[in-house]
Structure formats: C-alpha cells, structure tokens
Write a structure and sequence with these properties.
The protein has a single domain (2-251), classed as Beta Barrel (Porin). The chain is built from 1 helix and 13 strands. The longest helix is centred in the N-terminal third of the chain and has 9 residues, at 2-10. It has a 12-stranded antiparallel barrel with strand order 1-2-3-5-6-7-8-9-10-11-12-13. By secondary structure, it is mainly β. It starts with a helix and ends in a 32-residue tail after the last strand. Helix content is 3%, strand content 54%. It has one helix at residues 2-10, and strands at 29-41, 44-59, 62-75, 81-84, 87-96, 104-113, 128-139, 142-152, 161-171, 176-185, 196-206, 213-225, 229-240. Strand 5 and strand 6 (104-113) form a beta hairpin.
C-alpha cells in the first residue's frame, strides 16, 4: 500500500516526471491527459490507470488542476484490489516571472481528496495535501527546474514527509525532448518505510511537431534508500487561445498526477 500512497504523491510532479515546474498553462488554454503509472516496492506493485487529468488556465499565471484515477493494489501475496482512487485537486500559481538573469518561481499546492475505498486499500482515510516551491530557468534548448516542499498527511499510520527534485531537459528537435531527474522523498509511513532517492529518464514526443498532441514517457529506479521503481506512459492534448511565439515544449503543465500523483502516502493505491 506504500506505493499506492506514493502514487498520489508523484502527482507532485509534472507528468511524466516526479519533479514539477512553476510554469502554469497560458490563460484561457486547456490541457487533457490520459495516462497510466506503475510503482514497485518490495512485496507489491501499485498502478494508476486509466487516469484522467485536466488543467485549465483560469487566470493569468494561474491554472486549476484535477486528476481522477482508477487504481490497483497488487501485492505479491494476498488479496488484490482495483477501483476508483483518490481525486487530486490543485492550483498552480507563478509569482515571479523568468528573465535573462532570473528564474521563474511558483507553487503548485495539491489536495488529495479521499474518494477511493479505504477498506480495499485504495485511498488514504483523510484528505492530505502538498505544499511545494518550484523554480525554472531556460538556456536555449536546455531547461532546468526543481525545488521541494512538504506533504502533510493527518491520517493514522502515515506521517508528514519532505520531498525534493531536480530535472534537466533538452529539446533535441521539433518532435523529441528528453530529460533526466533526481527525486527524493522522506519516510512516508509510520512503520516499515524509508526515504528513497530515484533517478528517472523520460521525455515527450510531439506527433505534429508542436505541443498540441504528445506522448509522455518515463522510467526510474531508486539509487539510494528503499528500493522503488517508477514508470509513466500517457497521451497529452492542449488547446485554447494561441500562445505567444517562443513557447517551448515544457510550457505545458508537466504535473501529479502522476507523475505529484506519485507520492501517495504509503499504504494507498495510486501512482507512485
């Protein structure tokens, strides 16, 4: 169940990664994802999918976010479970704009609402939330972003924990962008859990050579602490008022679902 909880925690991230960025989608623009994730720790697999994510550029420098997933808890031994998971709500707000010498900075607060079945280990029994701070800077085809924050989990058996990540990506051509990240989270469960640091590789493929329709993919493995595996595969669409010239592939929300939808408290199905 640890990975299930992690699943929602990854949603800390910007799909397909676990680290997020501070850049909201453009005002009066929209994003839609359909995706699946997998997380593995010793003794169990946990999946999220099919899952749906929607983001709306409701105000300048602000977008609203929701993820509605199906989740599965698949222990190596024992009863398996599948059903509706916790719903994720969020708001991303950028309060410092990027310049030639200064990174953009923002936050992406997320709330995990207990809509899953707790008796089947598909949710945390109480609402919990994540409060991060993210920064981003671009240099030609290169973009780097990172930051961290705290997850506050009031449910019995869980504990608050810190998380942090750093990502470096490069636009190789008009269709393909690749990236690598290092992501850390602290102990998420009161017992039988440890911190973990993961190294992930992934990227985006633009079917039409622009942001409108993309495939997102990522795979990662722990390099320190508790053994974990993480994988994400999804499709992404965006539409709305025309964006300003010069927008880059990372201008879209690379959100939680999935990938902040990863760090769901230990003991709940979801995307790691």
């Amino acid at each position: 169940m640890f990975a299930l909880f992690l699943g929602s925690t990854i949603a800390l991230a910007g799909p397909p990664f676990q680290t997020d960025d501070p850049e909201p989608i453009e005002y009066k623009n929209y994003e839609f994802y359909t995706f699946a994730t997998m997380s593995r720790i010793p003794g169990e697999y946990d999946t999220q999918g099919p899952a749906l994510e929607f983001n709306w550029g409701a105000l300048p420098n602000t977008h609203l976010h929701i993820i509605f997933p199906a989740t599965a808890y698949l222990p190596d031994h024992g009863v398996r479970a599948y059903g509706v998971g916790d719903t994720e709500l969020g708001i991303k707000y950028r309060f410092i704009q990027e310049t030639k010498t200064r990174p953009q900075i923002g936050t992406f607060t997320m709330f995990e609402i207990p809509t899953g079945n707790a008796d089947r280990v598909l949710r945390v029994r109480k609402a919990w939330y994540k409060i991060p701070l993210w920064a981003q800077k671009s240099f030609g085809p290169w973009t780097m972003y990172g930051g961290g924050g705290e997850a506050v989990v009031p449910a019995k058996g869980y504990r608050n924990y810190p998380f942090a990540g750093f990502l470096l990506q490069r636009e190789l051509n008009k269709k393909l962008t690749l990236a690598t990240e290092v992501f850390y989270h602290g102990q998420t469960f009161s017992e039988d859990s440890r911190y973990s640091t993961l190294l992930d590789l992934g990227g985006y493929y633009k079917f039409r050579g622009n942001d409108s329709f993309q495939m997102l993919f990522c795979y990662g493995h722990s390099v320190s602490g508790e053994t974990e595996h993480y994988a994400y595969l999804g499709l992404y669409w965006t539409w709305g008022e025309k964006k300003a010239d010069g927008d880059k592939p990372d201008d879209k929300d690379k959100s939680a679902s999935a990938a902040f939808n990863r760090l769901r408290p230990r003991g709940v199905a979801g995307h790691m």
